[in-house]
Amino acid sequence: MFRSVAITCLFVVLAFCAGCGDKVPVTGRVTYENGTPLTLGQIIFTDDYYMGRSDLDKNGEYSIHTLRRNDGIRKGTYRVYITGAIRLESDDSTNISAEEIFSGKVAEIKPVRLIDMQFMTPDTSGWVCKVKKKSRFDFVVYPPGEVPEDKKTEAAKYMFDPEYRKKVQAERAKENGAPPFPVKKKRTVNPNLL
Fold this sequence. Notes:
Shape: globular
CATH architecture of the largest domain: Sandwich
Distance between the termini: 69 Å
Oligomer: single chain
CATH class of the largest domain: Mainly Beta
Number of domains: 2
CATH superfamily of the largest domain: Carboxypeptidase-like, regulatory domain
Structural class: alpha+beta
Largest sheet: 4 strands, mixed
Helix content: 10-25%
Number of strands: 12
CATH topology of the largest domain: Immunoglobulin-like
């Protein structure tokens, strides 16, 4: 009994270590179209089960890690997105520090998104990377509302543009022979309950 438990544990440990051994370095840079680096935020590689991430540095550079800094990521196909690309400003449009926030010196704080919403979810970014060996992936982002039409993904247009979504829903309804929007049924009252 003890021997079979020990052998099972050994197989589990070996399988875990085998999965750790195939990690490869993934680095790159995130910039705006004009070459200015995005310096705030975190880039995330995900296959919906496994995730690697890295903070962006002052040059927009990143080095993906999973458990330890710069330990790389397993080989595979990943969807990529950026989170936390937000700057905090005071009511007079100046950047503020964490110390100022917690000291109460700032009357009103407003978050300012640095990139368009398209790049903030794996479903809408359009970035897919195949990691097979040591790799470098550079990405270009745009400020909010400034993504050129030819750079917008279909998913982003559907999610963030209500007019586009209505158009697509109407086209799908035509194809399927159904009304474009759910039809609300009128409520009726059972006269026996009155």
